[in-house]
Design brief:
With about 475 residues, the chain is of the alpha+beta class. The protein folds into three domains: about 80 residues, no CATH class; about 90 residues, PDZ domain (Pdz3 Domain), CATH 2.30.42.10; about 260 residues, 2-enoyl-CoA Hydratase, Chain A, domain 1 (Alpha-Beta Complex), CATH 3.90.226.10. About 25% of the residues lie in helices and about 25% in strands. Strands 3, 4, 5, 6, 7, 8 and 22 form a seven-stranded antiparallel β-sheet that branches. The protein has a five-stranded mixed β-sheet with strand order 10-11-12-16-17, with helices on both faces. The protein is globular.
Length: about 475
């Protein structure tokens, strides 16, 4: 889509929307410029624009009425949240006062101490909380400390973690986690602690890639923790390595992958397969005005197609490991591969995010080109829903693994990531080799996380498209 055409269409629509009277020549005052950007962007792109009364195209009869409406909100964030529909439906739209922070998160660059964790309630009252280390990010502060996957912590700086204070405690740039043991039904502080400091950290989403040989099977294992486009070439190199090692089966570990770029997800699916180049991987559904415009100008812009020219395995089956933290672009891969190959999902039900967003800047085209230099506000509203080639995309309750593969991680028996004996990977290996063995999980501590390091920050669960 050409930016000039998009801008001309939007200009025409906005002139129609405000329906200015002939003698009403009041422009938007400069003090309302950011609020004006928020309303215009949401009116044009927001997926649920038709369901938000104050975003209606005929909402204002004059420029003056429109200006008064904008002026009634103290901050752009207040206006943005007012225009969103109910949180039960739109759980993911966000606005940032500094788009450099937004851009960093979407590319895997965050202020981070390197300890990726999950949080669980310790009892039925949902009051006390225990944290557990899921993995350590290489080249981080945590990577230099005595802390490992499976370590449990019950307090921050000596303050017990609860459902009310965990956000505040974990938001500090430097804090000390107080460790605990789990002993037969009770958590017992062990007196150990680890001090951690956040730095600006770029997380390579390719945490582990290896090949496990079991009989006649060369099983590729990839733990992939974020769909960050800047690492696409490295991902392609990994699959080139899988090719050279004659990988016959693939276990894709998306347990802690909360999403990212739809384009990158499409490439990953193309690397797993390879035999479906130019066929439809995913279809996008936008709001009524966006859908109509895109269909009239470039219908192919609504389609994400399998990509050729990549290192591909040409598989007809893939094993994917999941948890409740598996979200957005990860779920897209699961749902959109299903019409083409056998997807064996092992683990817990996923988050249930079937919608995507786009970054909107305050500029004539809503891209970063010619952005307003007077502020750094940017929005990341939900703008589209995704469906697979069979037309299915209704999984807001999450995508569940089928029995007997529906397993919640057991923090009392986590194992080492990438080790063939790690419980979830072991289930996949045993099914691949047809051994039929499955390990039972202890119900006492196999409970679902209610939050994790990524879901605390809404942007880290985004699935997004690049503005065109």
């Amino acid at each position: 889509m050409k930016k000039s055409l998009l801008y001309l269409l939007f200009t025409f629509l906005f002139i129609s929307i405000v329906s200015c009277e002939d003698n009403d020549d009041n422009p938007v005052p400069s003090k309302l410029a950011i609020n004006d950007f928020v309303w215009q962007g949401m009116n044009y792109y927001y997926l649920w624009q038709g369901e938000s009364p104050d975003l209606a195209d005929n909402r204002f009869s004059s420029q003056g009425e429109y200006n008064s409406f904008l002026d009634s909100f103290e901050t752009p964030t207040n206006l943005f949240n007012h225009l969103r529909i109910d949180n039960a439906i739109d759980r993911f739209s966000v606005i940032y006062s500094d788009y450099s922070l937004l851009e960093g998160v979407l590319s895997g660059n965050t202020k981070n101490n390197g300890m990726d964790y999950g949080l669980k309630y310790t009892d039925a009252s949902n009051t006390s909380v225990v944290g557990w280390v899921r993995y350590i990010i290489p080249n981080s502060d945590a990577a230099t400390k005595n802390i490992h996957r499976g370590d449990l912590f019950y307090a921050i700086d000596g303050i017990p973690i609860t459902g009310d204070n965990f956000r505040t405690l974990l938001a500090s740039d430097t804090y000390t986690i107080n460790l605990t043991d789990y002993n037969g039904g009770a958590y017992t502080p062990n007196g150990n602690s680890v001090s951690l400091t956040k730095t600006n950290l770029a997380e390579n989403p390719i945490l582990i890639n290896t090949v496990i040989t079991q009989g006649t099977h060369n099983i590729g294992y990839l733990m992939y923790n974020g769909f960050y486009a800047s690492y696409d070439d490295q991902l392609n190199t990994v699959f080139g390595g899988f090719q050279s090692q004659n990988v016959t089966d693939l276990v894709l570990d998306l347990r802690y992958n909360s999403g990212g770029s739809i384009a990158t997800a499409t490439k990953l699916a193309s690397m797993i397969t390879g035999q479906f180049t130019n066929q439809v991987f995913a279809k996008q559904q936008w709001n009524e005005k966006q859908q109509a415009f895109r269909e009239s100008q470039d219908p192919n812009s609504l389609l994400n197609k399998f990509v050729g020219g990549l290192n591909s395995l040409n598989l007809n089956k893939v094993y994917i490991l999941t948890t409740k933290g598996t979200a957005s672009a990860s779920e897209l891969v699961i749902n959109c591969l299903k019409p083409y190959i056998n997807v064996v999902q092992i683990g817990d039900v996923t988050t249930g995010k079937n919608v995507g967003s786009v970054t909107l800047y305050d500029s004539p085209s809503f891209t970063k080109s010619n952005v307003n230099p007077s502020h750094k506000y940017a929005m990341q509203p939900i703008v589209l829903k995704t469906i697979n080639n069979n037309g299915f995309g209704d999984y807001t309750a999450g995508i569940a693994a089928n029995a007997p593969f529906n397993v919640i991680e057991n923090i009392g028996n986590l194992g080492v990531l990438g080790d063939p004996n790690e419980p979830l990977l072991n289930i996949a290996i045993n099914d691949i080799t047809a051994s039929g063995r499955m390990r039972t999980q202890s119900a006492a501590i196999s409970t679902r996380d209610f939050k994790d390091a990524k879901s605390i920050n809404p942007l880290r669960t985004e699935m997004y498209v690049e503005m065109k």
